[in-house]
Amino acid sequence: MRVTRSKLDGPGIARKRRGKGFAYYGPDGELLDDPDAEQRIRDLVIPPAWKNVWISPRPSGHVQAVGIDAAGRKQYLYHEKWQQERAEEKFDRVLELSVRLPQWRAQVAKDLNRRGLVRERVLALAQQLLDRGYFRAGGEQSAEEFEHYGLATLLCDHVTVRSGAVVFDYPAK
Fold first, then answer.
1. How far is CA 119 from the centre of its chain?
2. Of the chain's two ends, which shows fewer C-beta atoms within 10 Å, N or C?
3. Is 64 exposed, middle or buried (0-12, 13-18, 19+ CB in 10 A)?
4. Distance (Å, rounded) from C-alpha 145 to C-alpha 143?
5. Do domains 13-78 and 82-168 have the same CATH topology?
6. What angle do CA 132, 155, 166 make, to 5 degrees?
7. Which fold has domain 82-168?
């Protein structure tokens, strides 16, 4: 089977609570009466806590299901083959990174030796903090919605200098 892109804004199979379980309704709004489709949906193991569940009407769709979890976050279940292809691509990118990493680290070390607070030196420090695993990158959405911070979203209140040392104190993910 060839995996194809799902149309997440298109019609899908809906899940609605029914008794102690769920009922599934096809894109036409009718109760699903297809044993193969029902088995495929069971095999997806969609968390029961998810709300507003959309299920791909096509077994070949790259996204098989979407729902909102208990924390209000949109979650996705991907086709197994799609996940495998993405994992292989990720591995290839990691291999490429491993070849470039020594040169990148040498440039960071060179830039850290610059004088003053020039752009290259500040960026090199940020890169080194990420590289050594002291920080996550951080994202605006996590900072705004969940007050989780990373290097890119730190606030002045999160940083102090004590006895010549820089102290970072912030809620992380």
1. 29
2. N
3. buried
4. 6
5. no
6. 50
7. Topoisomerase I; Chain A, domain 3 (3.90.15)
pTM as predicted: 0.67
- Cα separation values, 23 from 58, 69, 152, Å: 18, 19, 44
pLDDT, one tens digit for every residue, the chain (173 residues)? 899 999 999 999 999 999 999 999 999 999 999 999 999 999 999 999 999 999 999 999 999 999 999 989 999 999 999 999 999 999 999 999 999 999 999 999 999 999 999 999 999 999 999 999 888 898 898 888 888 898 999 999 999 999 989 899 988 87
Domain spans of the chain, in order of start: 13-78, 82-168
For residue 114, the 8-state DSSP code is: S
Q: Which CATH architecture has domain 13-78?
A: 2-Layer Sandwich (3.30)
